């Protein structure tokens, strides 16, 4: 499984959503039906969702579904990765890193061109960007574009998913969940070995990991690895995107945005 595909497209599964309560989990439509039909990636930061459409246009959406275009139409048509960090949207384009500040209308290249050409996945944590390259090596990048290797070369070779939460990086490796402390540079297994074998996507928010299994079942896991099923088994089966913000999980199904409280 390619980490970049997991992070960009999150997963291919769907949700049977309505305004009724399913196992104490209530879903509601956000905005108009079909508004998200052309969306290819979504991140959340600063109380907004930021999404890129097929033609490379960036949009900002508030919690009520009101959206506006950010920048010129098609400005992000070369974006390979979209990452949120401290109210800014960071992109990788043709192996180079860019910082985009929607509130200021500022867009700039950071670091040297091509420095991130081998990046498979990236997340933001505590003011820095953490990325895993194709050989499984982890890097930490500051906002000025300077970077350093973290740990041994190839240490994250088996990571298929990457998230940031609670001062840690969280990865799924060979079906098992791990967390890595970026301050002490130590990692540890969380929960039981193999618990995450069927997981196809995860996002972090509010001290919990939301994850979806291959059969479309949604789970919520705390920092100690204790998990519970959310909603009916197989509730998610054709959703194309998943993102979490402010204790709320957002999903896109058939081009429409839905949300549920954590």
TrEMBL record:
SUPFAM superfamilies: YWTD domain. Residues 1-24 form the signal peptide. It comes from the Bacteria. Keywords: Signal. This is Uncharacterized protein. It comes from Runella slithyformis (strain ATCC 29530 / DSM 19594 / LMG 11500 / NCIMB 11436 / LSU 4).
């Amino acid at each position: 499984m390619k980490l970049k595909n997991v992070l960009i497209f999150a997963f291919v599964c769907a949700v049977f959503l309505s305004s009724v309560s399913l196992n104490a989990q209530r879903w509601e439509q956000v905005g108009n039906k079909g508004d998200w039909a052309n969306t290819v990636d979504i991140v959340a930061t600063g109380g907004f969702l930021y999404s890129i459409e097929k033609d490379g246009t960036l949009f900002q959406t508030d919690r009520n579904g009101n959206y506006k275009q950010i920048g010129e139409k098609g400005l992000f048509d070369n974006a390979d990765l979209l990452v949120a960090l401290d109210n800014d949207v960071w992109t990788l384009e043709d192996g180079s890193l860019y910082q985009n500040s929607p509130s200021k209308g500022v867009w700039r290249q950071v670091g040297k061109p091509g420095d991130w050409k081998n990046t498979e996945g990236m997340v933001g944590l505590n003011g820095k960007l953490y990325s895993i390259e194709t050989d499984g090596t982890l890097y930490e990048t500051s906002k000025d574009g300077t970077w350093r290797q973290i740990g041994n070369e190839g240490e994250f070779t088996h990571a298929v998913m990457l998230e940031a939460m609670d001062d840690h990086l969280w990865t799924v490796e060979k079906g098992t969940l791990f967390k890595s402390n970026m301050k002490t540079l130590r990692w540890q297994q969380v929960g039981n070995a193999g618990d995450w074998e069927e997981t196809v996507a995860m996002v972090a928010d509010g001290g919990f990991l939301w994850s979806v299994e291959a059969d479309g079942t949604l789970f919520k896991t705390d920092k100690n690895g204790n998990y519970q099923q959310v909603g009916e088994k197989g509730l998610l089966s054709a959703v194309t995107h998943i993102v979490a913000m402010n204790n709320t999980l957002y999903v896109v199904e058939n081009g429409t945005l839905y949300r549920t409280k954590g």
